[in-house]
Queue: 2 jobs
Job 1
Amino acid sequence: MPLNQTPAKEDLVYKQFLDALIKGDRNQCSGISNALLESRATVQDVYEDLIRKALYDIGELWEQGKISVATEHMASAISEALINEFYAKIISGQKINKTLVVGCVENEYHQIGIKMVADVFEMNGWNAHFLGANTPTQEFVQFVKEIQPDMIALSLSLYFNLPYLEKMIQAIREEFPGLFILVGGQAFRHGGKEVIKAYRNISYQPDLKSVELFIRKINNNG
Ligand code: B12
């Protein structure tokens, strides 16, 4: 049971959360997600089975014209606030001296998924530098030069941003031929994996559970 509830209870709690998100009731959203965390749900469960699920539904409602753009903006702002609220629960007591730079490619404004990914790395002892949405390629590369991370992670939700991913990969490869690149986001639902096949040391992971397994493998191999 993803949120550690019975199916009926889980459904009810989810509906209350979605309603509160649409109404802009941040307090209730915060109360529901914190109560779930206290009742044995993991941060990843709350991220994916509550917040991600609600945002996907909000996307559908917006597409069907049932909610406004303003409501969608408000829902994503509340979701980001909730994620930031969890920070105290996220920081790992034990840091492992590994660093990651994460962000969205140019022209990509959907930054909530990659923020969740950054948090999963933090929970596993990594130090994640989160650059957020629409990071210009050269600025990203410059930052990587300064930080010298062990890995970078890139997100894109829009399929038409794939050329920006390639631009970023090529720019990174010119400076750091062997640096490992993790990629993900909804753009890959519509294809796009062929773009990354052309390069070495790049991995696509679809969700937080697979990201967690991926990190554990790396942490165990040193
Ligand atoms: C909120 C939102 C916005 C906000 C984003 C604000 C923000 N701070 O991030 C704003 C208002 C900016 C926005 C703008 C637009 N949006 Co919008 N948006 C959404 C919405 C409702 C939620 C996005 C979200 O946060 N989802 C929840 C997160 C947690 O899910 P996720 O991104 O999939 O992340 C998970 C995995 O994919 C994975 N993952 C993600 N990144 C990475 C990276 C790595 C390395 C790894 C390993 C894994 C990974 O892990 C996450 C956890 O499971 C979606 C609906 C949807 N289906 O998501 C539409 C949606 C993505 N948007 C859409 C559209 C069309 C747009 C606009 C073009 C609208 C417009 N006409 O202006 C613009 C484009 C802007 C741009 N250039 O990027 C469409 C895309 C359709 C398509 N097929 O491409 C969607 C699907 C809505 C819809 N149903 O039509 N949007």
Note: Residues 48, 52, 55-56, 58-60, 63, 72-73, 76, 80, 107-114, 116-117, 153-155, 157-159, 182-186, 205, 207-208, 211 surround cobalamin (CB under 6 Å).
Job 2
Amino acid sequence: MPEKMLQFIRLSQENPEKRAVKQRREDFSEIYRSFDTSHAAAQASRCSQCGVPYCSVHCPLGNNIPDWLKMAAEGRLEEAYALSAETNNFPDICGRICPQDRLCEGNCVIEKDFESVTIGAVERFITDTAFQEGWVKVPRPAHELGQSVGIVGTGPAGLAAAEQLRKAGYQVHLYDRYDRIGGLLMYGIPSFKLEKEVVLRRWRLLEEAGIHFHMNVEIGGNKSFASLQARHDAVLIATGVYKARDIGGPGAGLAGIVPALDYLVASNRRNLGDTVEAVDAAGKNVVVIGGGDTAMDCVRTAVRQGAKSVKCLYRRDKANMPGSMREVKNAEEEGVEFEWLSAPEAFLGDESVTAVRAIRMRLGLPDASGRQSVDPVEGSGFTLEADLVIKALGFDPENLPSLWDVPGLEVSRWGTVKVKAFSFMTALPGVFAAGDIVRGASLVVWAIRDGRDAAEAIKHYLAAKVSGQSTQAAAE
Ligand SMILES: Cc1cc2nc3c(=O)[nH]c(=O)nc-3n(C[C@H](O)[C@H](O)[C@H](O)COP(=O)(O)OP(=O)(O)OC[C@H]3O[C@@H](n4cnc5c(N)ncnc54)[C@H](O)[C@@H]3O)c2cc1C
């Protein structure tokens, strides 16, 4: 074991510095500063190089974390980047927005007594250094292949699949209804978590690699799915999930009650310099309903827009919320107030909302899935002033078979596209699917994993198609 490692005994955990709260509240820049070289090496050297690396086991991409930590500790950053890029198309993105507290870092063996290695921050440092030093190369293929693949959706699933297929030599065409790539990376996740240049620099590399981007093209809108099937040898559906779950009850239709993604997309567009009619929280009392990543992004966006007050209503307690604890802490630091164990009952106001009437909840017994039920506490109603209410209750898939007029595309009872185990192929031959549209709303790292796996399956399918054609030609 090299002396460089196992330093957790001597060194405490350090995260990259966060910008001052006052400054953070006033702009949309990322809140974490980068490690410098010596801090990155020192923090990487805390890794215990344990026999069974639970960090890798719990990383959906199976990243070789202990190996690239060791390289970073030894100053071998170019090798560290090469190794991390072998299993992950976008380590710079994952280093910023993966919920490491629930994945790699949450399972680090030194976590219990010494606090985990700061894996995400080191991953980000390695990749940002690689970009600065010019080590990140255009993913050009060694040779060209004639077959083409059409991919619907430029989110992390579609982009990861596109890069893998292009590296293998296929002609790759990406279609997206938006004008910029990235899906939720570009328009959902705010830039205080992920600055947009990080996504845009990937776009430039993929374009240079010869991937064709067809932006402002909506399948089922200005282009039919059938035309894609006719044009390409295989098609991948990576469209994510966008149908917002709604909330009913008295006053639910009042003005000033908006879906989370409309709010976030408009804010992101405005920060990118687009002219949009955006709902603005400036000077308003804002109430966000929900407890996931989307809700956390809304409350923190409202703070930055200059809201008078920002409150988050969540029907379970802090321990049971689905969002990352790191993001809750950031939100609390920035002045967001949380009303745990609270649910809305009605929205008050004449034309526009002026208040939310809510009720306290209590956790009950676990149901069949093991999740505790939540029940209202009688007589515990309370009212919160609100001129803007943001609904962040999760997303479901659109009904693709009817929207795209492909009745043969099988979907589950939740509307997610059904794929065959391991092959990622849908019920339609040559049509594959990956990412949130298969899993339901999930994480970027899972979308990358699915995109990579789907690309492998597509390669096998296309290779078999070619050898089938040549066998047939030989027989004729
Ligand atoms: C607000 C918010 C914050 C999040 N924060 C995090 C986080 O911090 N960390 C994390 O790991 N995950 C986070 N997630 C989840 C993560 O963003 C998603 O799991 C991931 O982006 C899914 O990737 P995808 O490629 O499947 O789909 P998407 O990223 O949704 O991309 C789908 C793409 O398909 C395009 N598309 C859809 N329909 C059509 C059509 N008919 N024609 C053409 N194009 C179409 C869309 O325009 C989009 O570009 C967050 C999600 C949200 C909503």
Note: Residues 97-98, 152-158, 175-178, 183-184, 188-189, 193, 218-220, 238-240, 264, 293-294, 297, 435-436, 442-445, 447 surround flavin-adenine dinucleotide (CB under 6 Å).
